[in-house]
Specification:
The chain has 215 residues and is α/β, with parallel strands linked by helices. Helices cover 30% and strands 33% of the residues. The protein contains seven helices and nine strands, in the order H-H-H-E-H-E-H-E-E-H-E-E-E-H-E-E. The strands form two sheets. The chain has a seven-stranded mixed sheet with strand order 3-2-1-4-5-9-8, sandwiched between helices. A two-stranded antiparallel ribbon has the order 6-7. Helix 5 links the parallel strand 2 and strand 3.
Amino acid sequence: MRFDRTGQAEAFDAIGNRYDEVFPHKQGQIEASEWLARSLPVGSRVLDVGCGTGIPTSRRLAQAGFEVVGIDLSGVMVDLARRNVPAAVFHQADIADLRPSGPLDLGRFDAVTAFFSLLMLPRAEIPLALRTIRHLLAPGGLFLLSMVEADLDDCSISFIGNTIRVSGYPRVDLHEVVEGAGFEIAEEICYAYAPASSDAPPEEQIFLRCRARSA
């Protein structure tokens, strides 16, 4: 599969700190991170896919005593995350780099979070990304996923003054894709979210709390 990321990292390089200004209240991520903090022992390894600025997810998980590793396509976002969460380790990398045949081996994890990062992929690639995450998890590992509910496939949209490409699913279809990649969905929580700027539209956010199925 050809992985086309044209313009995606550059858009988030340009957005930088404005992301946290436009999305200051990340209640879904906070609640999911708190759930993870209660669910795993101190010292667990957690991967934050699409870590952004590191706030709030990587920061909260590091505060919980986890060994946190984050990846993001955007070099600017990775630099911000390193400053915001010095206790964690961050790499400028693509989820495709972590597939079994990929160039980056970060080991295995007790949990993976992917908050609004897989929606940056075309639909054809999302099942592969989910299977990659399943491969990265220890047996019975936990997976937290959030997506914006939308029937879109690799569509260009205006986002905080830049153009990005996004995909989404109706929630029933999202469940099928996630379960088909080897996960059991323990809980779904939805939020109607209005960003703090007209530069980003209101959205329906879906958060799934999952566990890797036994092989």
